[in-house]
Write a structure and sequence with these properties.
Largest sheet: 5 strands, mixed
Radius of gyration: 19 Å
Structural class: alpha/beta
Number of strands: 13
CATH topology of the largest domain: Peroxisomal Thiolase, Chain A, domain 1
Order of helices and strands: EEHEHEHEHEHEEEEHEHHHEE
Bound molecules: acetyl coenzyme *A
Helix content: 25-40%
Number of helices: 9
CATH architecture of the largest domain: 3-Layer(aba) Sandwich
Distance between the termini: 19 Å
Low-confidence stretches: none
């Protein structure tokens, strides 16, 4: 049975840097509050108009280049986003067209901050089954356009950034590299704790303008409590599946929602923060893009080397969460 491995990584963030103090234009907030509560110093926001699929395109081009492939070599596109270009169809088909492809299948998934982990697991299953050998997995988000810029939007508004990450996942017969296991979970009982409720099938679209449902809602404390617990569980299940001790893992990459969540997981496993790759200070929460952006930067900084034991884990809206264990 072939194994799936990541053969190329790419990222793209818009050039416009928005520092914490810049947010004072909309919110009663401060650099000190944002940094101490979340670890964020700045984020990137697009210049409008912009397209999520286009951000994904730039990241994909770099991932394909690193893998030494052209778009025509790809058997399947998986596009993870909570901020698609259109209500329907998904951004995957738009990316497919931008890549110059004719009929390559494109699959959109809506797992929010867990989108990349879910997507990697899906790619792994398609490759193990033998159905596909080369899959392009993209996480891309434009979140600055759905933020609530009214004063009451500050709790959510200061956390999110725009960006994209992409990986090429390929089949290999090499037993010493690739994805070893993945574990996925969701709990719809908490769907309304972190959501944008509209546009929705429950609302007549002509009634939408000014509707409060179009603004993001987050029960921050509840989400935080679950995130710490579930992220820890997701790491534990990956460790148990591989029989790894926490200290044996070379690098942990956790979804970048809040540095305090990563710190809590590190404390639970009695690991130093150096074992965790973080860049939330530069980009904020880029949802489905955060883990592939981390992969790209970790590799560029020499913190990911062939043969390294790696655990990826994420938690987000849904609630959804999960983890992947792999050998780089
Ligand atoms: N600036 C200044 N003050 C603020 C801001 C702000 N931007 N936002 C809220 N406050 C105020 C609140 O009004 C509150 O004031 P009060 O005490 O007078 O009522 C005070 O700061 C404390 O607010 P808390 O909500 O208690 O702050 P907390 O320490 O819980 O941190 C945060 C908030 C950062 C949102 C945290 O709860 C968190 O990180 N939650 C989890 C986020 C997450 O993991 N999301 C999942 C992924 S996202 C996805 O899947 C799409």
């Amino acid at each position: 049975m072939p194994r799936a491995y990541i053969s190329g990584v790419g990222m793209y963030v818009p050039p416009k840097v928005v520092k914490n103090d810049d947010l004072k234009a909309w919110y009663d907030t401060s650099d000190e509050w944002i940094y101490t509560r979340s670890g964020i110093k700045e984020r990137r926001w697009v210049e409008e108009p912009a397209s999520t699929a286009e951000l994904g395109l730039y990241a994909s081009q770099e991932a394909l280049q690193q893998a030494g492939l052209s778009p025509q070599d790809i058997d399947l596109i998986i596009f993870a986003t909570l901020s698609p270009d259109l209500y329907f169809p998904g951004s995957g088909v738009l990316l497919q067209h931008k890549l110059g492809l004719e009929t390559t299948p494109a699959l959109d998934i809506r797992q929010q901050c867990s989108g990349f982990v879910y997507g990697l697991s899906i790619a792994d299953q398609f490759i193990r089954s033998g159905m596909y050998r080369r899959i392009l997995l993209v996480g891309a988000e434009i979140q600055s356009t759905w933020l609530d810029y009214n004063p009451e939007g500050r709790t959510v508004g200061v956390l999110f950034g725009d960006g994209a990450g992409a990986v090429v996942v390929e089949a290999t017969e090499d037993p010493n590299r690739g994805i070893l296991s993945s574990h996925l979970y969701s709990q719809g009982a908490y769907a309304m704790e972190l959501c944008i409720a509209e546009p929705s099938s429950a609302t007549r679209s002509h009634e939408l303008p000014g509707s409060y449902g179009m603004r993001p809602y987050m029960n921050g404390k509840e989400v935080f409590r679950h995130a710490v617990q579930r992220m820890g569980e997701a790491v534990q299940v990956a460790l148990s599946a591989q029989g790894w001790k926490p200290e044996e893992v070379d690098l942990f990459i956790l979804h970048q929602a809040n540095i305090r969540i990563v710190q809590a997981v590190a404390d639970f496993f009695q690991l130093p923060m150096e074992k965790f790759f973080n860049n939330i200070h530069k980009y904020g929460n880029t949802t489905a893009a955060s883990i592939p952006i981390c992969l790209y930067e970790a590799q560029a900084e020499g913190r990911l080397k062939a043969g390294d034991k790696v655990i990826l884990a994420a938690f987000g809206s849904g609630f959804t969460w999960g983890s992947v264990a792999l050998i780089w």
